[in-house]
Design brief:
CATH topology of the largest domain: Jelly Rolls
Helix content: 40-55%
Number of domains: 2
Number of strands: 10
Distance between the termini: 43 Å
Order of helices and strands: HHEEEEEEEEEHHEHHHHHHHH
Length: 335
C-alpha cells in the first residue's frame, strides 16, 4: 500500500493505554487496512499479519509522548512511513538493522547498538525500511514540540542542531537526523522498557512516564559529551565505532583493552579516553554490560546458568552470579 494511501486511512486517535501491549488489528477493509497509531507522533501502517508479527506494543505515555516497541520479523520487507507532523524522536536499536531514508538527505543505516535521534520542525517525507526475515528489537520514544517544551525545554534539539548537522540532516527543511553508538547504560535502559514494567496499572503508567523522561535525559547527556567530530578526530571516531562494533559482535571473546586498541589502530590510553568520553564506560565496563544484557536474554529463553555463562564468555560461575545479581538485583537462577 502506498504511503499516501496509508495516511488517508487514519480515522481517529488511540486512547490512553495502561500497559505496553500489542495493538489489535483494525477490521480488514479492502481500501483501508490500518492500525490507529497515535497521530501526534506516529504514522499509520497497514493492519496485516506482517505488522502484527513485528509490533510488540504501542503506548500513549503522556499527552504528546508515545512509546513503540518493535520485536519480531516479517517474511517481507516493511516500511514505516513518516507521521505527517512535527516531531522529536529517540530510538535505541537492540537487535537487527534498518535504513532511514529522508528526502533530500543520504540514506542512514542503523543496526544493533545504535542510538538514533531525529527532529522534524515541519511535516517531512521520510521513512524507515525494515528488511525481510530479520528480527528487529527497537524502542522508539517520540515527543510533539509542545510535549518537549513541557518536559523541560528545547535543549535536545539545540544540541542536535549544534553537533550533528553534518550527518544526514537536511537543515533547509528543518530536519535533523543523527546516529551514535549507544552506551551500554542506554541499551540497558531501553531493554528495561521492554521487560521491567510494574504489574499495577497505576504504577505502570507513572513508570512509563518516568522512563520516557529518563531516556530523554540520557540522550541529552550523550549529546552533551565533548565534541570529537573535528577534522583531526574524525578518524579516531571511526576507530572507536569499530571498537564498539567488535565488542558487540564478539562479546564472548577475551578483549584486553590493549588487544582491542591494536585491532582498531589506537593506543590503549586513547581508546580508554574515547570510550569514557563517548560511551561513558571503560572497555571492560562496556563489555561487561553487553555480556550481562545478552545473558539475561539467554536465561529468559530457558538456558541453564552454566550454559549462559559459557555463551557470554565468563568462565567463573561464582563471578557470573555476583555481577549478574549486582546488575539486576536477583541471581541468574532466579531470573
Amino acid at each position: 500500500m502506498p504511503a499516501s494511501a496509508v495516511a488517508d486511512s487514519i480515522a481517529s486517535l488511540t486512547s490512553d493505554a495502561a500497559s505496553c501491549v500489542a495493538p489489535q488489528a483494525a477490521p480488514l477493509m479492502p481500501s483501508a487496512l490500518s492500525h490507529e497509531w497515535w497521530r501526534g507522533t506516529l504514522p499509520t501502517v497497514p493492519a496485516t499479519q506482517e505488522w502484527e508479527d513485528v509490533i510488540e506494543c504501542v503506548l500513549r505515555v503522556d499527552d504528546g509522548v508515545s512509546l513503540v516497541v518493535l520485536d519480531g520479523s516479517a517474511p517481507r520487507a516493511l516500511t514505516i512511513p513518516a507521521p505527517g507532523a512535527p516531531v522529536f524522536g529517540m530510538q535505541v536499536w537492540l537487535e537487527g538493522e534498518a535504513t532511514l531514508a529522508l528526502d533530500g538527505g543520504q540514506p542512514l543505516k542503523v543496526a544493533a547498538g545504535a542510538a538514533l535521534l531525529f527532529n522534524h520542525e515541519q511535516p517531512s517525507r521520510w521513512s524507515t525500511h525494515l528488511p525481510a526475515n530479520r528480527r528487529v528489537r527497537m524502542v522508539d520514544i517520540r515527543y510533539t514540540p509542545e510535549a518537549l517544551v513541557r518536559a523541560g525545554d528545547a535543549g535536545p534539539v539545540t544540541l542536535l542542531r549544534q553537533r550533528f548537522r553534518h550527518d544526514v540532516s537536511v537543515p533547509a527543511l528543518g530536519s535533523l537526523v543523527a546516529s551514535l553508538d549507544a552506551p551500554a547504560s542506554l541499551l540497558a535502559l531501553a531493554d528495561s522498557l521492554v521487560r521491567d514494567a510494574p504489574a499495577a496499572p497505576e504504577a505502570r503508567r507513572l513508570w512509563y512516564r518516568a522512563k520516557a523522561l529518563e531516556m530523554l535525559s540520557a540522550f541529552v547527556q550523550l549529546l552533551s559529551l565533548p565534541n570529537a567530530l573535528t577534522a583531526g578526530a574524525a578518524q579516531e571516531r571511526q576507530r572507536l565505532h569499530r571498537a564498539c562494533g567488535l565488542l558487540q559482535a564478539r562479546y564472548a571473546e577475551h578483549w584486553p583493552p590493549g588487544l582491542l586498541a591494536r585491532e582498531v589502530g589506537l593506543s590503549e590510553k586513547r581508546l580508554q579516553q574515547l570510550m569514557r568520553e563517548n560511551v561513558g564506560r571503560s572497555v571492560h565496563g562496556y563489555l561487561s554490560d553487553l555480556r550481562l544484557a545478552r545473558a539475561s536474554e539467554f536465561l529468559q529463553a530457558g538456558m541453564s546458568v552454566t550454559q549462559v555463562a559459557g555463551e557470554v564468555g565468563i568462565s567463573s560461575l561464582s563471578h557470573f552470579s555476583k555481577i549478574f545479581k549486582a546488575r539486576y538485583g536477583v541471581s541468574p537462577r532466579a531470573w
